[in-house]
């Protein structure tokens, strides 16, 4: 009977111990869901609020808009990166609001029309970037500015097809964002048309950071070509930077690129 009693006592102790542990939700921020008139579907935003947000009611914050921003996409690690880099003992970037834009169909939303039959075959739902840009410009940004204490600093983060979209926005709608973090952009799209295109007039000062990993000669070439083109065109009135991560590839370049890129972007803003 002794072994049985020991088991009963052990289970009783374990049960009582577990009952004494208090649990509560771990709150990172807020989730917004709404119907988009431009995309004609429900869309979801994940919003990270910095630690001081609830304490300092008069303070406003820069906003970082993250493409591929669902919880199972890039939202958690980018929000964590901002929390770490803005902590008082690091202080490399300012505290910021991070808005993760969750995907429904990124192949549709991040691409414009391509004349290439191969592109259309590979991404049959492509061609919806114009509607998605209107969604960002006329719905997402106004909603965030109405709902949160955002200041006048907006940053866009896009990787892969998201980098392609960020390039299109910089070229054609540059007023939407002050800073652009363009990582491993899929500028092969439509036979590299965006790489050959000329940007529209870019007025207010921009900070652009372009990064790519060890992702093959074509991906590396187009990223570096975009950097060289923007550096030549934008000149001293803007900040244009580039970094090659030879130890990373297409799957994992974003995190380190965001770590160094956002630091570079905001250090330029502090000058």
Describe what you observe in this structure.
- This protein is an alpha/beta fold.
- The chain has one domain (39-270): 3-Layer(aba) Sandwich (Rossmann fold), CATH 3.40.50.
- It contains nine helices and eight strands.
- Strands 1-2-4-3-5-6-7-8 form an eight-stranded mixed sheet, with helices on both faces.
- Helix 2 crosses helix 9 (253-270).
- The radius of gyration is 22 Å and the shape is globular.
- The mean pLDDT is 91.
Give me a quick take on this structure.
The chain has helices at residues 2-19, 75-85, 106-109, 117-122, 129-147, 161-172, 189-196, 217-234, 253-270, and strands spanning 29-36, 41-48, 61-67, 97-101, 150-159, 179-183, 207-213, 239-245. It is α/β, with parallel strands linked by helices and 271 residues long.
Taken as a percent bin, the fraction of beta residues is 15-25%
Query: What would the average pLDDT be, to the nearest integer?
Result: 91
Specify the structural class. alpha/beta
Q: What is the terminal separation in angstroms?
A: 77 Å
Estimated radius of gyration = 22 Å
Could you give a short account of the major beta sheet? 8 strands, mixed
């Amino acid at each position: 009977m002794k072994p049985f009693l020991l088991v009963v006592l052990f289970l009783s102790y374990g049960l009582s111990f577990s009952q004494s542990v208090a649990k509560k939700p771990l709150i990172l921020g807020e989730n917004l869901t709404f119907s988009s008139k431009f995309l004609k579907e429900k869309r979801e935003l994940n919003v990270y609020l910095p630690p001081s947000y609830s304490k300092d009611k008069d303070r406003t914050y820069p906003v970082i808009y993250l493409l591929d921003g669902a919880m199972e996409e890039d939202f958690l690690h980018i929000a964590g990166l901002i929390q770490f880099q803005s902590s008082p003992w690091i202080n490399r970037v300012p505290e910021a609001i991070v808005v993760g834009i969750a995907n429904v169909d990124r192949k549709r939303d991040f691409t414009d029309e391509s004349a290439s039959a191969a592109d259309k075959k590979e991404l049959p739902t492509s061609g919806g970037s114009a509607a998605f840009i209107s969604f960002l410009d006329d719905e997402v940004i106004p909603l965030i500015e109405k709902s949160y204490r955002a200041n006048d600093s907006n940053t866009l983060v896009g990787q892969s097809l998201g980098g392609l979209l960020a390039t299109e926005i910089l070229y054609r709608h540059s007023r939407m964002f002050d800073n652009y973090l363009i990582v491993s952009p899929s500028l092969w799209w439509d036979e590299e048309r965006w790489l050959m295109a000329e940007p529209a007039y870019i007025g207010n000062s921009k900070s652009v950071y372009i990064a790519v990993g060890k992702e093959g000669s074509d991906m590396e070439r187009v990223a570096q070509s975009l950097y060289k083109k923007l550096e030549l065109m934008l000149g001293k009135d803007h900040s244009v930077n580039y970094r090659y991560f030879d130890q990373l590839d297409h799957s994992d370049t974003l995190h380190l690129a965001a770590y160094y890129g956002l630091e570079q972007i905001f250090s330029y803003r502090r000058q």
